[in-house]
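Worked Example 4.2. Consider the chain below.
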Amino acid sequence: MASFDDKRDKLLELIRGYGSCAVAFSGGIDSTVVAKAAQLALGERAVAVTGTSASLAAGELDEARELAALIGIRHQVIATDEFANPSYVQNAPDRCYHCKTELYEQIENLAERLDVAVIVNGANVDDLGDYRPGMRAAGEHQVASPLAECGLTKADVRALAQAWQLPTWDKPAAPCLSSRVAYGEEVTPERLAMIDAAERFLREQGLRSVRVRYHKGDVARLEVPTEALQPLGEPATREQLVAQLKQLGFKYVTLDLEGFRSGSLNALVGITPLAKPTP
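Applying the procedure from the previous section yields the following structure tokens:
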């Protein structure tokens, strides 16, 4: 089993071998670690590229800009147009494939001007055992996954981020807002704005890990850590929460008693993670 130091050194060596690269940079912990590694290995021959659209939560772009500046990597912001694709808007279980296809095509179009040879993403070993249709798009566009290739797990990524003093080392996962919409319900900028505002309100109440899931009929299903269930159910808090979300456009507000869990909407269509590969 490779040690942590071995994995880190292998990561830097692998990226150095690219000669130059563009990092698909969301500002999440995985892509931030890849961006830091790319800057250390390649310097000015590395660039971070952040795609923006209505599916990006408020504040995420500013945070990505701040992280890129902290790392010292070149940073390019591009507008993606996944909402022009009916297959994305229809929100079948492969929605993420269409989103990543749009992103990678946009980065490919920039590759010559950015003077980069390879596009890389932040997929780690743990992602390979999950339902990730975006990985199919990565394969089709020859996008490299250096974290996964070097055997880094999510825990390794967090440890590396902490060792490199990246402020997001303990940041909760923050997938795009479209992932909150139940499959089969159209993804629209208006619905995503409702979800974003609702989640911001919940974070203002002190919750770090939270999901506001959108279901048919403007139903909000709230997922929070189980220890937060009872406080949110207190009469005054509950009434404030319901009033706020209804003001945002939700007609019904429900609290999921199973608590917070990533990817819970996959269960509605029978999607389960694949068996995890052996590192």
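The radius of gyration is 19 Å. DSSP finds eleven helices and seven strands in the chain. Compare this with Example 4.1 before moving on.
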